[in-house]
Amino acid sequence: MELPRLSIITVCRNETARIRKTAESVVGQTCTDFEWIVIDGGSTDGTMEILNEYRNRMAHIISEPDSGVYYAMNKGARLARGEWLLFLNGGDLLAGVDVLEGILPLLGERGEDVLVGECLCTWPDGRQPRRMSHGAKLDLHHFYRTTINHQSAFIGRQVFDRFGPYDVSFRLSSDYDFFARAVLGGVMFRCVPQLVVEYDMTGMTARLKGEKDMMIELRRIRKRYPLIYRIRRLFNDSLVACRSAIVALKG
Q1: Rounded Cα–Cα distance for residues 70 and 85 (Å)
Q2: In a domain, 152, yes or no
Q3: pTM of the predicted structure, to 2 decimals
Q4: Beta bridge partners of 191
Q5: How far apart are CA 20 and CA 26, in angstroms?
Q6: How many domains does the chain have?
Q7: What gap in Å lies between CA 134 and CA 166, rounded to an integer?
């Protein structure tokens, strides 16, 4: 049997309000060279009843209690057969019926190991959606400062096999840790100006960005970088802060 080009892995739990949008965005794609894997964390609110309507479009569906979102992602990755992986959480959706038709021909086109598209950040309270790009240079310095939108990242299977699974000791930022380890290991990232996903900003990671627990995890991740690099970054960042303060005082 020919392997699919892409595995889409959706993890969810108690998502009746949003899961149908996610499912429709997947099954409505004009391109069909992918498999869809759903890992549900034992929903009790009717989510599975909705998902069962799409069961014939899924390669796998599992519903059982688990220990968190990254456990579920790892479970989905173990089942995946695709050359590339995309983690599309319940509540997020592909940003058009032709997203995969446009992206799949680009995967690995220039030797990249991870291809990153753009995302549209959305809020349910009516705020104006905001399109986010990661810039052209996704290198060591980028991943020290920040990360990328997980749902917009197409991850080569060989990259996940080498640097995965997600480290579940990180409750909030295991994907951040994964990408940091990958770039430190020489993985090539490429950003393309194509909208991939509508990203729900009420999700766990988006809501907790900047909170104490998240910052503790980010400090752990940065310790993976060589000490000399971290010292140099601290010096440079302090210098930039001083210059900014001087400019502000003169103004």
Answers
A1: 14
A2: yes
A3: 0.90
A4: 116
A5: 10
A6: 1
A7: 22
